Automatic annotation (TrEMBL), chains A, B:
UniProt protein name: Beta sliding clamp
A Pfam match: DNA_pol3_beta_2
Compartment(s) where it occurs, according to its Swiss-Prot or TrEMBL record: Cytoplasm
Source lineage: Bacteria, Bacillati, Bacillota, Bacilli, Bacillales
Residue ranges constituting the DNA polymerase III beta sliding clamp C-terminal domain according to the UniProt record: 254-376
Length: 378, 378
């Protein structure tokens, strides 16, 4: 194997596939990045066996030569060292060559690295995925859907299925749902597809988080293919595989109340900042709980009291308070997470009593909702 | 106590005095910030008993009213909460008032905090310092002198005196010296003074580091007063006290070789980057050592070899190599620290053999030098 490549393109691809590489693996070859040079270009692969990422650097693009392949071949290089090396190389072009069997030379200007490689034949094969049933979604929409749901997955392994995000596809609708059983995030969107099949899968929250870090915020379409135990995201020059979680995701539809007894409308940012301040003194406590109550004249009071430190009272002017008076307590962290996930300047919060879950929605957007279970303190 | 103050000025002063506050103190009142409101303005104080910082906010500045004092007084508020609160307050102006004995209210817009304060009478008094003997130095020069020396102090408590920077003042010259016994940093400057006394003191490295974070990069003069066991830095509206380390600092002057057998001149940045790359594979090893050797045609080779990972060879074109051929090994970290501390595009390295300390200087600047002890490997 021997090729000359533009350093910046190499650095970018290495950074992308590094998202799948972990040093905490029991399979030594997975601490490496697989590099394959073929006639069409260079392919880099990283994997932790849950997530696998393949990044392709074409021989040329828009008339520019990016890679000059001198001899095809493949090698696995230690990911940590290789990624640090390429970032710090002195010149814009890098030559990579296998000498002998696994000794790999990286040359750039007057800098020459010799790395001990591993046999590329021993690198695990990526899943073979039939692409009969695929659908498409705009990359920036996918990123938004991930951002608006994945934070609500459970971080505890008590119920492993809740560490994933539930994706349901039916009749051209995609619903993404995450819950840790104390709060729930739901986001829906239309997708482009010719398939009739419906799916109900659970994608590890960590996989979606890594994916959203490496896809660009563009409106280009990304292809998605689902198999029995894998999901594949195909962007330009990028393949992202994730295993799916096994097991049945709980039916969350009955959790979402269909009616409400108190509804408030309030500016998102003002509400978020008031909750943030009200929770400042409560963070010491075990659960970071704030109290919320409606007052006359459309005023909302958010407060917390930590006797050893002090207390806070925040008044927020809401656009409207409809229905019954209410006093309720909830986790300030969950509320702030939910408010940050919503778009739009104003939100509506619908309560059905102090002991029932309540729902937060943007004012004019039915595609997203956040649900929070209150805490018993009043 | 009651006053109304501009939030931004309060936030800035709180951030400054917070540099002296630690949560790991055995004296509970030192986890707080002391706030004193008097006719002239508001004074904030933070201290960990080694460092004390006092920041003054004047009643008015350049015709602008900054503080409106309604009633003088003093209180100590929990530093961690108070600093987080002021940063997040909603309006540009903040009212602070003591209710009853120690209950303190912080009001801003519709936000109201009640904090449990501590009695300001119990806050330790800052050292009383006679200002007979003081000298002045430009703030940006002081910052540079700290940056160029303090990194070389020892982090080990085996010889506590080496955790400080040795300041020697004599005949209008200030020398700052730091060494951890493996390397040494020295910086000299002229100071403005009318005093005849000479001083030889040791300032904790940590104190200088915190000081350099809060003083601005201006050419305004900063006053410095030295007493038996304290040093005081006086900038505009800011007092910074540090205790001095007790004990005698070793005489370092005889460590610095006066002659050399090999001298090289090289571009600072190119040399730094080559050392950085050469050390990439060596970082795994215990001591991060690189090999340096002179080759013909003014070429320098820097290399390292970690058999289990691989090896690196870097060639650097120097402006000149004078004197004997040389092979020497040294810590890449110490060399990079030294090169980052120097100013100027080119440096001169003067060696007196593979086993002797060597000296790095900017090409045309006699006020600064860095010294490194080699490592025995060749």
């Amino acid at each position: 194997m021997k090729f000359i490549i533009q350093r910046d393109r190499l650095v970018q691809s290495v950074q992308d596939v590094m998202k799948a590489v972990t040093s905490r693996t029991t399979i030594p070859i997975l601490t490496g990045i697989k590099i394959t040079a073929a006639a069409e270009g260079v392919t880099l692969t990283g994997s932790d066996s849950d997530i696998s990422i393949e990044s392709f650097i074409p021989k040329e693009e828009a008339g520019d030569e990016i890679v000059e392949i001198k001899q095809p071949g493949a090698i696995v290089l230690p990911a940590k060292f290789f990624s640090e090396i390429v970032k710090k190389l002195p010149t814009d072009s890098v030559e990579i060559e296998i000498l002998g069997s696994l000794q790999t030379v990286i040359r750039s200007g007057k800098s020459e690295f010799n790395l001990n490689g591993l046999d590329a034949e021993e690198y695990p094969h990526l899943p073979q995925i039939e692409e009969n049933n695929k659908f498409h979604i705009a990359t920036d929409l996918l990123k938004a859907m991930i951002r608006q749901t994945h934070f609500a997955v459970s971080t505890s392994e008590t119920r492993p299925i809740l560490t994933g995000v539930n994706w349901k596809i039916e009749n051209g609708d995609l619903s993404c749902i995450a819950t840790d059983s104390h709060r729930l995030a739901l986001r829906k969107a239309k997708i482009e597809t010719e398939m009739n099949e419906s799916y109900n899968i659970v994608i590890p929250g960590k996989s979606l988080n890594e994916l959203s870090k490496i896809i660009d915020d563009t409106n280009e379409l990304i292809d998605i293919v689902i198999t029995e135990n894998q999901i594949l995201f195909k962007a330009k020059h990028l393949l992202f595989f994730s295993r799916l979680l096994e097991g049945n995701y709980p039916d969350t539809s009955r959790l979402i109340p269909s009616e409400s007894k108190t509804e408030i409308t309030v500016n998102t940012k003002e509400f978020l900042q008031a909750i943030d301040r009200a929770s400042l003194l409560a963070r010491e406590g075990r659960n970071n709980v704030v109290k919320f109550s409606t007052i006359t004249d459309n005023i909302i009071e958010v407060s917390s009291n930590t006797p050893e430190v002090g207390k806070v009272v925040e008044e927020i002017q809401s656009q409207s308070i409809e229905g019954e008076e209410l006093k309720i307590s909830f986790s300030a962290k969950y509320m702030m997470d939910a408010l940050k996930a919503l778009e739009g300047t104003d939100i509506k919060v619908s309560f059905t009593g102090a002991m029932r879950p309540f729902v937060i929605r943007p004012l004019h957007d039915e595609t997203i909702l956040q649900l929070i279970l209150p805490v018993r303190t009043y």
